[in-house]
Amino acid sequence: MRIERTLAGATEYLDARGIGYEILVVDDGSSDNTPEVVTAWAVARDASDYVRVLGYDANRGKGYAVRYGILRAGGERILFMDADLATPIEELSKLEAAMDSAPEHVIYAIGSRDIRGKDLLVRQPWYREKLGRLFNNVVQVLATPGIVDTQCGFKLLPREAARSLFSRCTLDGFSFDVEAIFVARRLGYRVAEVPVRWAHQEGAAAFTSKGKYLLHGLKMIADLVKIRWAHRGLRPSRANNLRTASAPPTA
Question: Where are the alpha helices (DSSP H) in 52-149?
Fold first, then answer.
């Protein structure tokens, strides 16, 4: 299974760095044998103390799964990432550098596929890129001005900040990324958009046709209204955005 390759790559990289870590695999009510595969993989490598699977019976959505894992993670810094390694784990060092660049601030470091310095090893289908760019334009107007890529599944922030942030988030679907950035700004966190390597993974996306992807985008736009309403009591902060590339978004 793909998850076994992901675990092998992640543990090899983190072991080589000589740092303490834990890996939490959140199973979002899947119908396959992911929990058994992860558990067996960890037992076979005597890694059960730091490679664990969390889960629940019903499918709740990506946002719920990320929130579920973050609120149970114990590391000083929490990285959440897609299990398909679309962004290689080695890109973690770039997010760490962004966080360390301004230690006096809480930094929410987010991977980006759309600013100068990014490296797209395998591009998405053309309709996903076009519709994604259109969606992001709407997102920037209504929720996250200045953030070029809200949806890259590779983000890092300090544990206590992560708990404070995600305990306030409410969306269970794919719009959770936008909500998290919106709330982070309201809490005074700085958002650092960091260019990363990324490769589209065939079969990884939940929306594989133009029609489904368009409907998905329309639902996310409706979610923007929910975000603004749910967090209307949080006053805007003067927190600044940070970007490791000073150039405008690339096409």
Answer: 62-70, 92-100, 126-142
